[in-house]
Structures are given as C-alpha cells and as structure tokens.
Amino acid sequence: MPVLEVRHVSKNFGAIQALTDISFQVERGEVVGLMGDNGAGKSTIVKTVAGNFPPNDGEIVVDGEVCHFHKPIQARAKGIEVVYQDLALADNLTAAENVFLGREIKKGIWPIRVLDKQAMIDRSAGLFKELKSETRPRDLVRKMSGGQRQAVAIARTRLSNAKLVLMDEPTAAISVRQVAEVLELIRRLKAQGVGVMLISHRMPDVFAVADRIIVLRRGSKVADKQADNTSPEEITGLITGAIRGE
Amino acid sequence: MSDFVATKEKTALQHIFSSQPFWVTIALIALVTLMTTMEPSFGTSENAANVTRNFAPFGIMALGTTVVIITGGIDLSVGSIMGLVVIVAGLFLTWHYPWYIAFAVGLFSGMACGAVNGFFVAYIGMPSFVVTLGMLSAARSLAVVFSANQMLYQFGPDAPIVKAIGQAKWPLHGPQDWAPHWIPELSSQFWTMVVLALIVGFVFNFTAWARHLFAIGGNEEAARLTGVPVDWIKFEAYVFSAFTASVASLLLLGYNGSAINAMGQGYELRVIAATVIGGASLMGGAGTAFGAIIGSAFLEVIRNALLMAGIDSNWQGAFVGAFIVLAVLLGMQAGGKSILAAWLAVLMPKKSR
Which residue intervals define the domain ABC transporter in the entry (chain A) (predicted)? Predict the structure, then answer.
C-alpha cells in the first residue's frame, strides 16, 4: 500500500488555478523528486498534503485512509512531516529545544508539569547520531551552519517516526559540502522506510537521491518517470515545456 | 561559509559572563559599594527599604512587560492601566464595598484592558505598538472620566485594611520584634515583586509555555508551523502584562491611601527601559525575570544615588539615558561574542583560550 496517494487533486485560489487533476503515489522508502518551474504548483502540492489547506477537488489518502486536513497538526498526526524551505526554526532556541518545539517532554504531576530537559537533550542527541550529524543538542540554532540546521529540521521529523517527509528546497542556499550532507540525510530516511518527497530546483540533487521524478507544469502533472529511465535533459525539457508531457 | 566548524559548547560560566543581566548586576553592586563608602546616608537600612519599595512597582510591571517583549511585542499601556485600576478600585472603596471586592474589580478592569490589547494584537494581527498606544490614551481617559477628575481618598470602612496592605513591612524592628536594625524593613511591594519574580523565573525555565513564548519571539511562523498556539499565548502575554500593572497599582493605592487618575503617567517608558537594561531584546526572543528586576533596581539606584550625591535632579534623565544605551551596548552580540568580550580580546590579545 502506498504511504501517500494523491487522487485527482485540484486547487484554485480565486481565479487562479494552482493545481489541475493531480494524481500520484509515494511508496514506503521511496524518494520522489517533485520538479517544476516557479509557479508550477510544487508548493501548493506540499501545502495541500501537509494540511495547510484542503484541496477543492480530489482526495489525499494516507496509508489507505482518506484524510481531510485543515491544519498542519492533523497531517502530522497521520505521520506526515514537513521540512520547510526556511526550515521553520527558532534561532534563539537550542537544537534540542527546536526539535521538541510544540511537543515537549514533560514530567511531574498536574498542575506542576515541568519540562524534562535532560530527556529531550538525550533523545535529540540520539536522533542526530542516527542521522550521523555533528549537531549538538545544546547549541543555539543561531550559531549553526546550513547543514546543521537541516539536520535539526530533519531530526524533528524523526521524532514522531513519520511515514512521509516532505522537503521543500532543502538544498537551496547551502554550501556544496552541506548539500552532500543533506542528501545523505535523505538516504538515511529512505533506508529507514520513510517516504520522502523532495521538492527542488536543483537537478543534480534530485537525480542523486530520487527513485522517481514527477514534473509539474502550470499546475498539471506532465511526467512521472523512474529516475533511471530519464535524464536531466529530458526533465529540463519537460519543465520548460520544450518536451510535451503525458 | 564555514562547514561544521567545531564551536565549543559554552560552559555555564561562559553563559553567565556573556549575559547582560550579569554585567548590570556587577555595575549595580559597584554603584552601591561606591555610594555606601562615599555617602553615609546611602548605606542605611532605611534607605535600602526606601529604594526597594520605590523600584518594586516597576519591577513587578517589568516582569509583565518582559513577557510581552519576549514575544516581540511592546506594551505602552501599563502606566495608563495603573491609572484606570486605581480609580476603579478607589471608586468601589468610596462606595463602601469591602476591600477585596474593590481590589477584584480593579484587577478585573486592568486585565480587561490587557485582554483588549491581546485580542487586537494576537487575533486581529495589529502591531502591538499601535494597539497599546491606543490603550494608553483610552485607559487614561477612562480613569479621568470615572474619577470626575477628582482625587479619591474618602474610602469606606475598609480603608485601614487597604492601607495596611500597601504599607505592610517585614521584618519589623520594634522592641518586641526579632529583626536587628541593620536588616531593612522591606515593603509589601518588594515582597510581592520577589514572589512574582520567582514564579515568572520558574515558568521561564521549566515550562513548555515559556518555551513557546520564546519560540514566538524567535520565529513566529516556525512556532505556528510546529503547532504552538501562537495567538493564544500572545493574548495571554498582554493579559499578564496588564495583570502586573494592576497589582502594582493596587499596592500603590494602599501605600498612598488615595487614588489619583494620573497614577503611572510615564511609567511605561521607565518599565521598558528597565526591561531593556535587564537584557530583554526588543526584537523578541530574549529576556529573563532576574533581568527585569535588576534593570528596575538599577534605574532606581541611579536615581537615588544622584539625589544623595546632591546632583541636580534634572540630570537624572541624562544619566538614565546613557545607561540604557550602555547596558544594551554591553549586552550586544558581535559575531557570536559580546562586545565586551571583543573589546577585551583587542586589549589583551591571545591571552584567553
């Protein structure tokens, strides 16, 4: 059973048709690259699946269950985690504090429920180790490199044992070395049986990790190809419209 | 761009040295020591009781303002809320209601103002500066209207209780009391501040609520995306700020034994100055309970010291202004180091590490 199935999803914002009849699936342990030019509808798909807004038409099926998300929390409860483009980290908090933001571990008896800081630090240290990242739980995010920040954002998705991780431009605006680090993180998620949707502009990154590539153009899906059976040239052609899709 | 440069984890000591409240505390201790040696009347327990009583209302309000400032907002209305609360409570006392009814209604009116602030800031999304500026004007105006621009002092049968609350002291010196003379008789305002500061300090350090509060100040959108109830917490911050202003107002009502609608005029700026000196960042995301108290204490000690040193009181503003800028300058971070540490590194190269 696919972890995510998007069935005939359409979305419009007023007169703007953002998505038209999009269907695709993501399996467990599969990395799917989602590509397209600016305004092709990549972010709209992410936000629809992540529960920021419901589609006008069609349905989102998670593990065979039809879901109607109105808030990101509902999607998260079904095992869908998002790593946002700007990473959604609070700079003034530490790595551990960011990993557990919004789902802190507490101890004690009501009404005096206090944070279990040590448990959160230990658990995030474990997650960073699992991701083979050099991030330390007590460091402030403000002082971290782009790669370490990515590790924090990805560690957050591991906290709940997510089934599907959506990553919005995780390799934009970081150095070459850090890109390699992030791609490694994605492979590790895949190895743990997590479905990954990678939204990116960067062709080499997508080809480096993706099993399958979906191309959007003007809100419609124009291609859904195994990465082995296509080439950067073909994908570029599909993105720009030089090659006509399905 | 640097890849994974191994930055050393800070030790607890380094943490303290890089914190602004620490340096302000050092400055405060230095100032007190200097004044005690230079001016005999400064170091007396009477003056200590005076100073602590004077800054306590500001310390109490600074705790509330710190909470708002951590969210990245500002509360300009606390002074006017004090005025409204004292008049509302004063009116109920003149109508011969029991003191606890008067205090409860006063507290309620103050917190209602905070709720209005919080509603417009958190749920409507208006800038806090504008909303609380409006409340600054509106609450003061209501205070003037309700009091018919009269001073209220003919309180009913509970007047002695109200006074006792505002003028209570502990420990007492008297012949039958245990405290020796060198221990200051600390005011009820001071003790209220201490208790509130301990509560706020505990909340800041040990609760998820405060984690969320700091996260909102650091990155509101991130907090929202991770499921933090951003709007509700911001709303609560403004209500708490108004609560602290109301408490300060009621204590001063008891101390003065009368209510005037001009109470708290201009206090908002002193309170904001105190929180900023204490290390709260107007950009949001930083602030401590200790800093709020120490900032308020610092401002009052400067004022008191200048007065005792016989310097024309018109100079106070200049000194206070200079210290606001200086304190923030010392606490500023430049390239991950405090400015002070950077200066020290220039003066004493290669000595540290």
Answer: 4-243
User: Which class would CATH give A4-90+161-240?
Assistant: alpha beta
Chain A positions in Cβ-Cβ contact with residue B215 (cut-off 8 Å): 90, 92-93, 97, 101
Least CB–CB distance from A97: residue in B211, B225, B227: B211
Q: What are phi and psi of A22, to 5 degrees?
A: -95, 130
pLDDT band for B225, please (50, 70, 90 cuts).
Answer: confident
pLDDT in tens, A75-98: 888 999 988 877 789 999 999 999
pLDDT tens across A182-211, in order? 898 899 889 989 999 999 888 999 999 999
Please answer yes or no on whether A145 and B2 come within 8 Å at the CB atom.
Answer: yes
Contacting residues of A for B199, CB less than 8 Å apart: none
B227 and A103 in contact by Cβ < 8 A? yes
Q: Which domains occur in chain B, in start order? A: 20-332 (1.10.3470)
Q: Where are the domains of chain A?
A: 4-90+161-240
User: Residue A143: CB partners within 8 Å, gap ≥ 6?
Assistant: B7, B336
Contact A115 B211 (CB under 8 A): yes
A60 has which bridge partners? A6, A67
Q: Do A101 and B4 touch (CB under 8 A)?
A: no
* DSSP H stretches of helix in chain B: 12-17, 20-38, 45-70, 78-94, 99-118, 128-146, 159-167, 188-206, 208-218, 220-225, 230-256, 267-277, 289-308, 316-331, 339-347
Q: How confident is the model at residue A215 (pLDDT cuts 50, 70, 90)?
A: very high
Q: What is the pLDDT of residues B294-326, one digit of tens each?
A: 999 999 999 999 988 888 889 988 988 898 888
User: Per the CB < 8 Å rule, is A175 touching B1?
Assistant: yes
User: What per-residue confidence (pLDDT) applies to B146?
Assistant: 97
